[in-house]
Amino acid sequence: MVNFKRLARHHFMPPWAWRRAFPQATVDAIEGAIRAGETTHGGEIRFVIENSLPGILILRGMSGRERAIGMFSNLRVWDTEHNSGVLVYLLLADHDIEIVADRGIAARVDPASWEAIAQTMETAFRQGEFERGALEGIRQISALLAAHFPPSGDNPDELANRPVIVS
Predict the structure, then answer these.
(1) CA 17, 38, 27: angle at the middle one, nearest 5?
(2) What Cα–Cα distance (Å) separates residue 149 from each residue in 46, 145, 154?
(3) Are 33 and 63 in contact (CB under 8 A)?
(4) What's the chain's Rg over C-alpha atoms?
(5) Which of 37, 89, 44, 45 is nearest to 67 (CA)?
(6) What is the C-alpha separation between 134 and 116, in angstroms, rounded?
(7) What integer pLDDT is reported at residue 158 of this predicted model?
(8) Whole-Å CA distances, 154 to 32, 46, 104, 108, 149
(9) What's the helix, strand, coil split of the chain in %, to 5?
(10) Which of 140, 167, 137, 134 is nearest to 25 (CA)?
(11) Which residues of the chain have pLDDT under 70?
(12) Alpha carbon distance 47, 100 (integer Å)
């Protein structure tokens, strides 16, 4: 069954709406936090902000989680040496935060930990503090990765640190 309210929310979301929550300085701060965090662990973090889904995906009933898993695959977050990639996905039209962890880290961290990080981010976002929420989420993810994947002698930066914006 088609959720017409959701379809309308996605359809009428302006393509520039993400800039209100994530201006250039905030995107730069997220990139810097990812880069700094990755010096403390052997994992990789990708951050994706998507304004809204295309109507056809809404009509098919695609959830934010399904879209996040697709982004995880498309951005090759799974393609790290130790299977320690983590994707943070924000779907602004649905106010949805999804964290997808590769099998190496998912086997060591229970889903409740990822959910707690998403809740922390959501709380800040609801207060309009998008930069604080994003940076705190990255800090918490980095702490989990550092505990389970401490950096080895050779710690290459395997994935881009710049957030991906899908508008």
Answers:
(1) 15
(2) 16, 5, 13
(3) no
(4) 16
(5) 89
(6) 13
(7) 84
(8) 20, 20, 18, 22, 13
(9) 50, 15, 35
(10) 134
(11) none
(12) 11
DSSP 14-49: -TTTHHHHS-HHHHHHHHHHHHHHTTSSS-EEEEEE
Residue in this structure with the two tokens 């961290």, named with its chain if needed: 109
Using the structure block, give the residue that is written with the tokens 């810097």.
32
Structure tokens that stand for 154 in this block? 């050779």
| Two structure tokens written together for 133 | 């929420």
pLDDT of 43-75, one tens digit each? 999 999 999 999 999 999 999 999 999 999 999
pTM (two decimals) = 0.94
- Say how far apart CA 138 and CA 26 lie, in whole Å: 13
| Residue whose pair of structure tokens reads 């965090």 in the numeric block | 37
Q: How many whole angstroms from its chain centre is CA 102?
A: 13
Q: Which residue has the tokens 């250039």?
A: 24
